[in-house]
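WARN retry 2 of 3 for item q-0093 after timeout on previous attempt; input resubmitted unchanged.
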Amino acid sequence: MLHRRKDLNELDDSSAFTSKADSASLEEFFSVGDFTAAAHQAVKRLADMLSGDSLEGVRLQRPADLMARARNLMVATDRGRFDLHRFSEILDLYLETAIKVNSRGYMARQFSSVMPVAAVFDMVSAMVPQPASYYEAGQFANIADRLLEETFGRLIGWPHGRFEMVTTSGASLANMTAVLVARNHCLPQSWNGGLAVQGSRRPAIAVGEDAHFSVTRVAGIVGIGQDQVIRLPLNERRQICPERAAAALDSAAFRGLDVFCVIASAGTTSIGANDPFPELAALAKRHRAWLHVDAAHNGAFLVSDRLRPRLSGLGLADSFCLDAHKTLFVPALCTLLFYREKGMAETAFPQKDSYVFDPFEDEMTAVQSGVKNFECTKRPAILNLWLAWSLYGRHAFADKLEYLVTMTGVAHDYLANQPDFFVPYRPESNILCFVHRPAGVDSRRLSLLQIQLRDRVRAAGQYLLSKVELDGQTMLRMVLMNHRIGLHDIQGVVAEIRRHARDILENEATQSASRSGICRLQPGANMMNFASSSRDLAKLVLPETMMHPRTADDVLVLPPFLAALQHAQAHLGCRVDAMPLETHAAIIERRLSQLVSIARVNPLWRQRIDGAIGTDPVNSLKQFQALPLTDKEVCQQMFTQTRPGMVVPIERCGFEIVASGGTSSGKPSETVYPLGELQETYGWAGDFMGWHVMARYLTGDGAKWVATTLADYQMWSSGTMVGGVLQRIPGVNYIGAGPMSLEVFQLMMSYPGPKAIMGISGSIALLATFADGLSREARDSFRVALYGSGVLTPKVRADLREAYPNLTVLSYFAAVQAETIGLQLDPESPVLTAVPGLHLVEVVRPDGQWAEEGEEGELVVTRLFGNAAPVLRYKVGDRVIRRPDLRSPGLNAMQFEYAGRSGDFIHIGDTQYSAPRALAAIIAEFRRRQVLEIDRVATDTQFQIDRTKRQLHMVIGTPDAASLSAQIAARLGPEGSSPLMIAGFVRSLSVFNALEANEASLLSSGYRFAIRLVEPSGADLVRTEFGKLPLVVDRV
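OK item q-0093 returned
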């Protein structure tokens, strides 16, 4: 017998007739009485909340605890009855866990308390829905759209009937929709054929550096790809800089990118800045690109006659959007998306499905938006805005907006006048960023402190602030959305911040004081020999999961070493340079182990490392010291042209290539730095310089200045480093002065406040002659002169001190591949202090092992901040003397003393001469003139420079010194050996250096050149205390 198969969609016969009881339960489910009771309860609770005036932020609960509470409020069975008490408890839990947007303590986010009457209407539209995409379902909502479209069109200044507005659910969706319109307009085949049909040029969008994350996310959504997002640089007010943006767009075009949409901001999320719309509109037009403005926050300024001028040029945009649920104070989500040209909106989604779209337009379908917005079912949120506008008019919105913006300006002025607060930007809207910096707190500690303060203030429950990171600095962020907030509330949150900061710092000081010292790391010691606290800290900040990357992708996701240092600082409650040397050494040793693992990802480095020490991990300094030294020749092979030595290929992320002229070898070279690591290096070195030098000499509450004469020296070795470091010194204004002329110097010295100048020795020496005509106040304001690339004679130093009574002269040491290596902290001592955490600084013997204290050796550095392009044990090209480590309460660091260029180098003026090349050229010159076969008779040769007497002698040790001296004098004539030595020095110059130094420059240097023959065993040849005979002895 055949049986009919049951249709799964067919109900059992038993369910065909609904019982009376079941019918009653359904009626209860939709009970009007329950609705009335619940609504009454909710309105009462909300009215009480709105009437209150308590200071509240948000009470965060642990997710597990909140989940347990919520689970207990659920009915235990599959069928339950309405319980007013249970409803009240659920309502209480909702209100308890919500941010108290109606409280004066709420200063954190960009969503506002709403107009109460709009919230009531939101409930009405929930009970009686009018889905707003189609007219037949949402008549009133579509009419409200058109009415507000007319209203805002008049405020923008667009001609009636020539533009259009679409409502959508949030600016994230509005931005995506506008970019789709731009894409379909500029790349008309993309909707059907995709981006592949566009040819060889890659479609791209351009956004400001501070663009909201939803804007950059669009690139991935619409198929462009994140690699095709061009970041447009900002100016000092964090607005898109038109000039630099133009260069960025030109560069993108050169790289084969077709920028079809430029996205600007009216009210950036970070600080509320408005981009310069007229200039960007012209720029977009020149590139045939669409200009869209994300005006989610500040777009509402259109309703205010006072604030509307801040949006000057917004009407030139092809499209823009604004969030009514932010600064028009209606329930979320309600976003208005405007198009300057009518008809563009429907090109976002060019499709016509029969079940929702009619084939012909009539008077009803003409006003609907379904074909223009992403949503099919769209809440009629526009009705909340239209209702409030209809009841209260435009000025109700304008009055609140104007108050919030004015109050934010008041908050700025109040905070800016507090000595322990830093306010970097004057607000353009109701968003204010600031940093609390208590006296004595390390600037590198401030970012973590702001996060701790945000968390502590939030946990206390009275106030709620947010945070933002700008240029690597975490700041507290205040968004004023409540018109009841006054100056007393700003003063209250400031007092709360100070209270928590005191508690944090006192707790950390107590914890730090309780920590005991740790045994010192010695060369060759294994990490297992450390006391547990030092070893454990190193493992804490560099956990095992980060120690052994296998691929370039693994390296790219590694946190920067800066993060490890900051973690260590937070854990110990002190700066890295104040840590015990033993603790610092443990962290550095573990970092070296990680760097070797990173380098081994690259086959070239792996072969170089494994060939020296085998394949075992590097876990000690002894193992690390067995690695071969890396010099300039190796770097040329590793990082020039194809750059085979990079762990992360050049196309994988952003790099800066620093070119060096090759002052000694004559071979131009390139050094590769990941941009992020380079900026971290600048910040770390700049903070050290600010803390240990500028804070000591540039005192007072007013403006402070630091200038460099290396601003035009950016592509020459350390020049690029110096400018970058100086720009990152906290609290100091930076001047890139370029070549120092009398006019430039005296103009700069007229600025109020103390000043420091960094430059090469020749430029600093010149400043002694620039004092004439300066006022006493200006002369007194010159506090610090930092010089490098040469030496300053005692006379020059005396002249500088006479001209500038308050001046301290210090030297710095920087070099390509190593950036800022050392800084002279004590003007009475030539010792240089290494910047802790920036490099491993080694003074090594020819066998690569460490020199003893007091012994001279090669300066070798390993850049600790380098992941993508590591360089291990780089021989800088200088000889230094290892000095005892500095141990003091505020600074513990390695120290060394500069002895001269290695291999060796002679400094005359601002030119470096390779001593071996000069020696060979002088020998050849003496042979060519038939004066002396130096290499045949000499047992030793040494260049001796006396900078006080300005003389340079080539001292030749020979047993026949007495007899040969008379013969040579007769052959040389009255001019002596000076012409031959000068000729030799000139011949020794590389092609590159010959452009800047010649015979005339040597003659004008004021030096006297001569050879001197001496007995080899006598005291005339200078030897080190270890018996070595350096080729160059530089006597200052």
